[in-house]
Amino acid sequence: MEKVKFYVLPQLSYGYKDLEPYMSEEQLRIHHSKHHQAYVNGANAILERLDKARKENAEIDIKSTLKELSWNVGGHLLHSLFWGNLTPPSRGGGKPGGGLADTIAKEFRSFERFQKEFSQAASSVEGSGWAALTLCRQTGRPMIMQIEKHNMNVYPMFRILMVLDVFEHAYYIDYKNDRGKFVEAFWKIVNWDEVEKRLEEALK
Ligand code: MN
Question: How many domains does the chain have?
Answer without folding.
Answer: 2
